[in-house]
Design goal:
By secondary structure, this protein is mainly alpha-helical. Helix content is 67%, strand content 0%.
């Protein structure tokens, strides 16, 4: 999600790295305060020994250690739609096809649409989109934990799990304290999105998530994680889905 936000800043808004670093610095002072936002700011500022920014010199092909893949496999086995982590893993797989992508970039047409809106306004949409997507991703993660607990007859303390991550993990953030509060208030909470605090945050930010996904689609910037977040949100809040047609077809 953070990489996609960076990509949108760079390719949709045409921002320079020092400007992006300032944005991430501001974001780190608010509800997005986290280890990953902090190091993203520092990475964007970092210059190589030749005085030029290091980030553009790093090859855009990511590997993986397997944690995302294992989570995706578990999600499929338990039948839980952990779509954001799935898309993050597949985005890494796609990034690894560097030579193919270079060839495709010369053959396949993209969008001719250019961003012509208010830059400051879009950056605020992007901030809220990142926050909304983060809520959705954690909601999915806790859905998987809850289903695994049900199947395996585990008694998990979800609030304590959130605090454990806050202690010293790469995903540590202020945000995890809000998750702890949600599960302390209601240990039987079926989904984080249904907690009063988080449902209110979604009310405030879901329209910004739509703006970010729409702008990415219109300008031809791949944003699979943001798109997956929105698709899950709209599916989850739908009283009726078209699965009746699927069942009829089967």
């Amino acid at each position: 999600l953070i990489c996609e936000a960076y990509h949108l800043m760079k390719d949709v808004l045409g921002m320079e790295q020092d400007e992006m670093a300032q944005v991430f610095d501001e974001w780190n002072k608010g509800e997005l305060d986290s280890f990953l936002i902090e190091i993203t700011r520092d990475i964007l500022k970092f210059k190589d020994t030749d005085g030029k920014y290091l980030l553009p010199k790093i090859r855009d092909a990511a590997g993986q250690k397997g944690t995302g893949k294992w989570t995706g496999i578990s999600a499929l086995e338990y039948g839980v739609p952990v779509t954001l982590i799935g898309e993050a893993v597949f985005a890494r797989c796609l990034s690894a096809l560097k030579e193919e992508r270079v060839k495709a970039s010369k053959v396949l047409p993209g969008s001719s649409v250019k961003f012509n809106g208010d830059k400051k306004e879009f950056l605020e949409h992007l901030r809220k989109a990142l926050y909304a997507s983060k809520i959705i991703s954690y909601a999915q993660g806790f859905m998987l934990l809850r289903e695994a607990a049900k199947v395996n007859k585990w008694n998990l303390n979800y609030g304590s799990i959130a605090l454990m991550w806050r202690g010293g993990c790469i995903i540590r953030s202020v945000f995890l304290g809000n998750i702890k509060e949600a599960f302390t208030k209601n240990p039987q909470l079926s989904n984080l999105l249904l907690d009063e605090y988080f449902s209110q945050r979604m009310r405030e930010s879901q329209s910004s998530l739509r703006q970010a996904v729409a702008q990415a689609a219109l300008t031809g910037v791949a944003a699979p994680a943001f798109s997956a977040a929105l698709a899950f949100y709209d599916g989850y809040r739908s009283e009726v889905l078209p699965a009746n047609l699927l069942q009829a077809q089967r």
